Fold Phosphoenolpyruvate guanylyltransferase.
Amino acid sequence: MNLWAIVPVKPLHQGKSRLAGMLSVEEREALNFSLLWHSLEVLSSVELISRVLVVSKDPKVLATAREYHAVTLHSEDDRLNLNLDLQKADFMAKWQGAQEILVLPADLPLITAWDVYQLIQKAQKPKAMVIAPDRNRDGTNGLLFNPAEGSRYSFGPGSFERHLAFAKKNGYRVEVYESETFALDLDTPEDLSLLYEKDPNFFQKFAKPIRRNV
Ligand SMILES: Nc1nc2c(ncn2[C@@H]2O[C@H](COP(=O)(O)OP(=O)(O)OP(=O)(O)O)[C@@H](O)[C@H]2O)c(=O)[nH]1
Ligand SMILES: C=C(OP(=O)(O)O)C(=O)O
């Protein structure tokens, strides 16, 4: 087993733009940094993961990833394109020996190492795809390919159904990973309120990287 986790990250000042009505650009930048830090903390404590690969245009994101011994890929395209960045990261991971690939967006504030471990367990027997939907069963909050060969990314609105359809069409055993913690990605003001309810301490944790930056 040689499982790589790929984490795509938008530039910190651009991410979470749907929260612009509630948070200033500085607050969103701090929140994005905190979410990145949380993802790296979680992934680096999952022993089943051989390497973490972070793909981003943002040098600060990549420098932080390297502090966690992640492999980094600098996306140099003019425009933002999540699926293209994932495709490039996927190629790099396979070139360096990845046999299984897990894509984990960096906006899952509630996930723990145990959640990620459980998701991975579902993919033990190939040929499998594990798909973790968001709470509306619209987006994809985790996607694992075992084997990595033949992987394909179709993130964006409605991606859960597209990933399911891809799996069925291509002969994968599909495991839908239903998890309350995985299901909460931070996109909308409603998601932010839910996070306040479920983990008010998250916002104290997220003061930490703000302090690190000043
Ligand atoms: N490398 C890379 N990562 C991206 C890109 N677009 C989104 N991401 C990351 O992909 C994950 C899921 O993205 P979204 O849920 O749409 O988050 P977001 O783009 O910050 O949210 P909005 O700005 O509100 O659309 C997050 O970790 C983002 O940082 C991209 O073009 N390139
Ligand atoms: C890009 C995605 O994220 P979101 O729907 O959270 O923007 C996705 O789930 O495919």
User: Anything to note?
Assistant: The first helix runs from residue 25 to 44.
